[in-house]
Design a protein that fits this description.
Layout: H1 2-14, H2 21-42, H3 72-76, E1 82-83, E2 86-87
Helix pairs in contact: 1-2
Length: about 90
């Protein structure tokens, strides 16, 4: 469980999120449940099942129509940091 708590804290740091001890413990428990579910899926018999190559039916997509979008002022008003008309994000990959 301690491993999962450290993972959640690392992900929170990368996303600049702050969780208290109770939230971190709850998320670690939920992560454990998700991973247990994934283990159950791994046990499914998929013998003879062909992999799906196309997960989107492109005939069902809406027509691509250009519409009015946000102004730069509205787009950047909640940004943490901007520079030269671009979003600036902290480096998270070494």
């Amino acid at each position: 469980m301690e491993e999962k708590i450290k993972l959640i804290q690392r992900l929170a740091d990368m996303g600049m999120l702050a969780f208290d001890e109770e939230e971190t413990s709850r998320m670690a428990k939920e992560l454990d449940e998700i991973l247990s579910f994934v283990d159950c899926i791994k046990e499914a018999d998929v013998q003879g099942v062909q992999p799906e190559r196309k997960v989107v039916n492109f005939e069902d997509l809406r027509e691509d129509i250009a519409e009015e979008s946000l102004s730069k002022e509205d787009l950047f008003k909640n940004a943490f940091h901007t520079e030269s008309g671009c979003f600036v994000a902290p480096k998270v990959v070494e």
